């Protein structure tokens, strides 16, 4: 049986670790060749590339700072050039800076907006020039974009909420080409940056209806569905994969 993404090429920003790595691997399992970007951890990203290649897919790791528009555009263009095309963009790279509104610095604000808002916009702008008709743009938001349960989340929540507007605007603009644009909001997810056994994990899990953290594979499954041909009539949507955090 043909895999749903056979012959497709995907780029996952921040795909060298955590949720991004889970997404990159799932897209490869479904048949896509996958490029990923990373900022610092070349060794970890190389391990993800090797795992993708073990599935019989082509893979590419590109060092790119998502705060740098030229680097973001370069990663998109390099993916399309080396892997021959681009069908799926997953905007996953993000920074998570937490602090009281009167304590965060101007640099904190600039970095958050540069990576979490401008980065996805620039990536989508660059990808739109390469995406074939019927392509996919999927951004990874956050449950706190809809429900900020702790103090200190205003900056991060604002940056993730901006992705909803980007998603709806791009869905309308790119719809005539059959390109769908959607937003996935993960809830608390077990990663090295946010472990399910961390100091505040029990409290955070308690805010979900299911009482537990997600696995990266749980988020990746929804991304894979939105990337597949079967989801061709889903666009401009915000999908919460949060264990009932926002219910």
Keywords:
single chain; Rossmann fold; 247 residues; globular; alpha/beta; 7-stranded parallel beta sheet
Q: What fraction of residues sit in β-strands?
A: 5-15%
CATH topology: Rossmann fold
| Average pLDDT level | 96
Largest sheet: spatial strand order: 3-2-1-4-5-6-7
Keywords: Oxidoreductase
Domain Ketoreductase: 8-207
GO molecular function, one term: oxidoreductase activity
Family: Belongs to the short-chain dehydrogenases/reductases (SDR) family.
Report on the structure:
- The protein is an alpha/beta fold.
- The chain has a single domain (9-239), classed as Rossmann fold (3-Layer(aba) Sandwich), CATH 3.40.50.
- The chain is 41% helix and 14% strand.
- The protein is built from seven helices and seven strands, in the order E-H-E-H-E-H-E-H-E-H-E-H-H-E.
- The protein has helices at residues 18-29, 42-54, 69-82, 106-128, 154-174, 201-206, 216-227; strands spanning 9-12, 33-38, 59-63, 88-91, 136-140, 180-186, 238-241.
- A seven-stranded parallel beta sheet has the order 3-2-1-4-5-6-7, with helices on both faces.
- Strand 1 (9-12), helix 1 and strand 2 form a beta-alpha-beta unit.
- Helix 1 (18-29) crosses helix 7 and helix 3 (69-82) runs parallel beside helix 4.
- It is globular and about 45 Å long.
- It holds the Pfam family adh_short_C2.
- This is 3-oxoacyl-[acyl-carrier protein] reductase.
- Belongs to the short-chain dehydrogenases/reductases (SDR) family.
């Amino acid at each position: 049986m043909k895999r749903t993404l056979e012959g497709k090429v995907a780029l996952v920003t921040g795909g060298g670790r955590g949720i991004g790595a889970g997404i990159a691997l799932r897209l490869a399992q479904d048949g896509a060749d996958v490029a990923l970007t990373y900022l610092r951890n070349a060794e970890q990203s190389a391990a993800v590339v090797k795992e993708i290649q073990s599935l019989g897919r082509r893979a590419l790791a590109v060092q790119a700072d998502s705060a740098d528009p030229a680097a973001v555009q370069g990663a998109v263009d390099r993916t399309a050039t080396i892997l021959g095309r681009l069908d799926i963009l997953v905007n996953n790279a993000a920074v998570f800076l937490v602090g009281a509104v009167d304590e965060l610095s101007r640099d904190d604000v600039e970095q958050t907006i540069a990576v979490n808002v401008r980065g996805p916009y620039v990536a989508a702008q660059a990808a739109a020039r390469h995406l074939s008709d019927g392509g996919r743009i999927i951004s990874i938001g956050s449950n706190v974009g809809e429900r900020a349960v702790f103090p200190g989340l205003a900056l991060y929540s604002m940056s993730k909420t901006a992705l909803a507007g980007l998603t709806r605007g791009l869905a309308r603009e790119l719809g005539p080409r059959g390109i769908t644009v959607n937003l996935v909001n993960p809830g608390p997810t077990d990663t090295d940056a946010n472990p399910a056994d961390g100091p505040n994990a029990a409290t955070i899990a308690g805010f979900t209806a299911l009482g537990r953290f997600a696995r990266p594979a749980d988020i990746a499954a929804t991304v894979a569905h939105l990337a597949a041909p079967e989801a061709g009539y889903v666009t401009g949507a915000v999908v919460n994969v949060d264990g009932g955090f926002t219910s």
